[in-house]
Amino acid sequence: MSPKPDFSEDDTRWMRQALALADRAEREDDEVPVGAVLVDADGQLLAEGSNRNIIDFDPTAHAEIVALRRAGVARRNHRLLGSTLYVTLEPCAMCAMALVHARVARVVYAAKDPKTGAAGSVFDLLTDSRHNHRVAVQGGLLAEEAGQRLTDYFRRKRGKSA
Fold it and tell me: How far apart are CA 152 and CA 147, in angstroms?
């Protein structure tokens, strides 16, 4: 068994903020509880996002994409060099490639996605050497909390008990 990666206090603080966004998305919009926080190289908040697929009728409105779009507008640049994305669920292939194209430096995710994860679970798009940019990845920060939120959400949706 490999050791867990080291996470800083700032990593934990930002992931807790992403979890709060996930909670709000579920509570206010009945969205799948996924939240994302993007910070710059100096540790300052660039943008936040949560899933908006249902409310926006947009299959691309994943938390990561929402945060990237908002950060791009705020920075007036499609490149987000040196930034770190904190997200409560491992990015999918669409989000992973958006992160590569935005030149995000690092992704920290909570829960693995064994069905569509593209940060090492199913695919490993963020670190693929064939890309002209690779994103550093650390997974598992507050994974149990994030995973339980997702499990509970889908159980409620499917009408199943614990």
Answer: 9
DSSP 8-state code for residue 139: E
Can you spell out the DSSP letters for 40-103? -TTS-EEEEEE--HHHHT-TT--HHHHHHHHHHHHHTSS--TT-EEEEEE---HHHHHHHHHHT
The catalytic site residues sit at: 64
Strand 106-111's sheet: what is its strand order?
45-50, 35-39, 84-89, 106-111, 136-139
140: left (phi over 0), alpha (psi -120 to 50) or beta: left
Which residues make Cβ contacts (< 8 Å) with residue 131, sequence separation at least 6? 100, 125
AA identity, residue 154: F
pLDDT tens per residue across all 162 residues of the chain: 445 568 999 999 999 999 999 999 999 999 999 999 999 999 999 999 999 999 999 999 999 999 999 999 999 999 999 999 999 999 999 999 999 999 999 999 999 999 999 999 999 999 999 999 999 999 999 999 999 999 999 999 898 655
pTM of the model: 0.94
Q: How far apart are CA 60 and CA 160, in angstroms?
A: 28
